[in-house]
């Protein structure tokens, strides 16, 4: 059963409804690249490392070791790995424009950060705050914000510059919602059903989780018309929790929802949402003739990087291993089809 909403006609593969041979090479290559990422044994060595030198030694024996050649700067190595991965995906994809669905997330994040740091209460933005994985350069984006002339930016980014709120939390929600709307537009233009379903899943998860948070703060939740929820649906947090439990299988969400109702702790809901997305991607990535393996590879790489950064921070501050294990997400390899 499909729990991700109807697929617009534009996104249906009319020319090749059952098989798209143009993606087979890309999908197979993405699977091969994914097999080189962290294994369960390598993850355990990273998590169990006693200190930063031991962690660095463990990383040198993994896929990331290439990026640590001649350096001990883990953050720099991880950034280089992600930039290389982006270039590889763009090289592999028969339609590189389709990957804008992934890269626009970094554009909107960068826009948010630059707008915050360029405001009077901060000392100014720098390129250190910038994640170089989007479609726009730091110089172009900084100039657009400083001058108020965003004509050189992607249309959705330009509109965001003109209409963004000033308040910190409101700006966070605004930028994420604008990213999702822009991503859905790109997905529909890509003419690939998977990309539309992927983006609609992100939208629906965001509507639910941000809506529940808004209710907890006593605020009005944000309605996104492109989601599967009416303006009335989001006014009731119980409706949102019920709809969340109906995504996929209710057993997946039961523990997280129960914990939230008992403690008002959002962390389990966030973890369950991340797990659900990864499980969904793993099922979709079986189809080698679609963009799914490319998207799955990027998500797995990103999860690997998040794990390493969490472990690196934990070793620097002396965090207990048990505490680190509570923070990190389930590995992609652990999910079943």
How are the elements arranged and paired?
Blueprint: H1 24-35, H2 40-48, H3 52-60, H4 74-92, H5 100-117, H6 138-147, H7 155-163, H8 168-190, H9 193-216, H10 237-245, H11 250-263, H12 267-284, H13 292-317, H14 321-327
Can I get a quick summary?
The protein has 337 residues and is mainly alpha-helical.
Please provide a written account of the structure.
The protein has 337 residues and is an all-alpha fold. It contains 14 helices and no strands. It is globular and about 50 Å long. The chain starts with 23 loop residues before the first helix and ends in a 10-residue tail after the last helix. 33% of the residues are buried.
Give the amount of beta strand, in percent: under 5%
Count of individual beta strands: 0
The helix fraction, in percent, is 55-70%
The unreliable regions are 1-17
**Structural class of the helix and strand makeup?**
mainly alpha
Query: What overall form do the CA principal axes indicate?
Result: globular
What is the number of helices? Answer: 14
Mean pLDDT over the residues: 89
Gyration radius over CA: 20 Å
**Main sheet?**
none
Helix/strand order, N-terminal first: HHHHHHHHHHHHHH
Q: Distance between termini?
A: 15 Å
């Amino acid at each position: 059963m499909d729990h991700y909403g109807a697929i617009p006609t534009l996104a249906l593969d009319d020319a090749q409804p059952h098989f798209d041979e143009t993606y087979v090479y890309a999908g197979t290559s993405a699977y091969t690249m994914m097999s080189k990422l962290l294994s369960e044994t390598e993850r355990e060595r990273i998590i169990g490392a006693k200190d930063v030198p031991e962690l660095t030694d463990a990383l040198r024996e993994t896929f990331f070791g290439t990026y640590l050649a001649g350096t001990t700067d883990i953050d720099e190595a991880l950034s280089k790995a992600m930039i290389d991965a982006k270039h590889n995906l763009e090289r592999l994809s028969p339609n590189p424009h389709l990957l804008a669905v992934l890269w626009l997330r970094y554009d909107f994040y960068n826009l948010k950060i630059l707008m915050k740091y360029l405001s009077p209460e901060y000392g100014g933005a720098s390129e250190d705050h910038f994640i170089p994985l989007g479609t726009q350069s730091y110089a172009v984006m900084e100039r657009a914000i400083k001058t108020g002339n965003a004509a050189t930016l992607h249309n959705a980014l330009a509109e965001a510059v003109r209409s963004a709120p000033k308040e910190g939390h409101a700006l966070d929600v605004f930028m994420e919602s604008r990213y999702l709307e822009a991503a859905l537009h790109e997905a529909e233009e890509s003419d690939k059903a998977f990309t539309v379903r992927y983006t609609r899943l992100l939208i629906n998860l965001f509507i639910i989780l941000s809506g529940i948070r808004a209710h907890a703060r006593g605020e009005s939740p944000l309605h996104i018309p492109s989601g599967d929820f009416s303006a009335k649906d989001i006014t009731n947090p119980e409706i949102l929790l019920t709809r969340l439990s109906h995504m996929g299988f209710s057993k997946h969400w039961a523990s997280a929802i129960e914990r939230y109702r008992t403690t008002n702790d959002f962390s389990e809901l966030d973890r369950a949402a991340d797990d659900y997305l990864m499980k969904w991607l793993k099922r979709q990535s079986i189809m080698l003739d679609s963009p799914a393996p490319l998207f799955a590879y990027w998500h797995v790489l990103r999860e690997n990087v998040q794990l390493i950064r969490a472990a690196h921070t934990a070793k620097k501050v002396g965090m207990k291993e048990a505490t680190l294990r509570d923070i990190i997400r389930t590995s992609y390899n652990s999910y079943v089809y």
